[in-house]
Amino acid sequence: MAGMSRTKGATGERELARLLTEITGHNITRRVRNLKGEDDLQGLPGWSIEVKRYKAITPGLMAMWWSQAQRQADAIGCEPVLFCRADRGLWRAVWSAELLLTKTQPCELPWRATVEADPQTWWAVCGSFGNGQGHSFSRLLVGFGRSSVFDAVVFGLG
């Protein structure tokens, strides 16, 4: 069973590396021999990328994985990003909410404050951090839309 889990993880890492290469334009590759405490993918300057591929994703697992991603990123002086995908699901990116606010207003958030979105949105919003040379934004507007669901709108993408 452990071998199947390892294979599933490696397959997920390769799948995400291809997707991130397409989205970012950087050559993202899987660390073939990642040691304990190392991130899973390499090739995106300023980012520590952790990848999880599981049957089902629970809030408890997400908290544990995010903590791991933060420790690994802190050890190498990078920003953490966690990508995860459940069986028959889509890839999701999780990153620190502080990155959204530092360009508009300084603030202190709890260390667990995160944002979750698809990988394309993560890159559009955060690609300019860590020398990734993605998009940048100049103003963040957060409010409630007509549908009574929380909306976050990023202006100035380009």
Folded structure, characterized:
The protein is of the alpha+beta class. The protein contains four helices and eight strands; from the N terminus they run H-E-E-E-H-E-E-H-E-H-E-E. The chain has a four-stranded mixed sheet with strand order 3-4-5-6. The chain is globular, with a radius of gyration of 16 Å. The N and C termini lie far apart (46 Å). The relative contact order is 0.13. Mean pLDDT is 76; it is low at 131-158.
Quick structural overview:
A hairpin with a 5-residue loop joins strand 4 (79-86) and strand 5 (92-96). The strands form three sheets. Strands 3-4-5-6 form a four-stranded mixed beta sheet. Strands 1-2 form a two-stranded antiparallel sheet. With 158 residues, the chain is of the alpha+beta class.
What's the structural blueprint in terms of helices and strands?
Blueprint lengths: L1 H23 L4 E2 L10 E2 L4 E8 L4 H18 L2 E8 L5 E5 L1 H4 L12 E4 L1 H8 L12 E6 L5 E6 L3
Parallel strand pairs: 3-4
Antiparallel strand pairs: 1-2, 4-5, 5-6, 7-8
